Amino acid sequence: MNTTMQTIKQFTDKYKLGNPFELDNEKAYQAWREDKLDNYPENIENLIVEIKNPENLSTTEFEAIQSRILKTNMAVYAGTTGNDPDKNIPLKLAEQFNLTELDDNMGADDGITSLKVVSDKRQGSYIPYTDKPIHWHTDGYYNLLDYQIGALFLHCVSAALIGGENALLDHEIAYIHLRDNNPDFITALMKNDAMTIPENIENGKEIRPIRTGPVFSIMPEGNLHMRYTARTRSIKWKDDALTQTAIKYLDEFLQSESPYIYRATLQSGQGLISNNILHDRSGFEEDEKHKRLLYRLRFYKRINKT
Questions:
Q1: What is the pTM of this model?
Q2: Which of 4, 11, 158, 228 could form a disulfide with 223 if both were Cys (CB 3.0 to 4.6 A apart)?
Q3: Is the domain covering 41-299 a CATH 3.40.50.12780 domain?
């Protein structure tokens, strides 16, 4: 069962209040919010799980990762594979969470993307394949609405000499921050025309059309989904006062020193497992002995309980 779906089911079984993400259900929201924030991890160290073999987790390791995802939509694992470049390491790990349907996006090799600095003119024109900073985003925000990214894995083969730090934020915390300030922000960001992704054109050829949709949405299983990017070149926000104010308020939160924003620089053998949370990446520097390489795996499904 989907972890957030399970959380919602446990929540509704406990309180009999319905889905907390529905704006007309304030009672359910307040009860869920209290549960969500109760004993929320204070720092990134609380999310790290030491594992021996990522391709064959022990029951204890699996449950430790799962419990963190259930609470925060993310976990960080620290494995013993070091700089082994075998792509089966994160792939087999994902399979243990019933994730098998990869998003075979542009730049991916059989669904697994090698995030590294490349000199190829085409691929190198995209920020993830450079050493430049990447602003806050969720993965696949430009995908068709029927092919949204539910889960995101990052596996580090080798780190840069300096930098390459990720900031991480549970999108449900972002939702709480906005809704607590003004529930109308959520109304605006759930509109089907809240955000528009411009077409992607290469050498005069359209490789992705314009796509429009909401920031927040409630998926059929009951979980909250978020689409977002802070890259101004990559998005056009709806031109109305409420949407513009909501995005400004969110941007200010993302640039703050909130204790809910974790920061981590993945090292060899470490990785992030998440339900496509908000994240960014700092710029970095390499030398001949420290070439940054991370594998990125995107899945349409969210992380399952069993």
A1: 0.93
A2: 4
A3: no
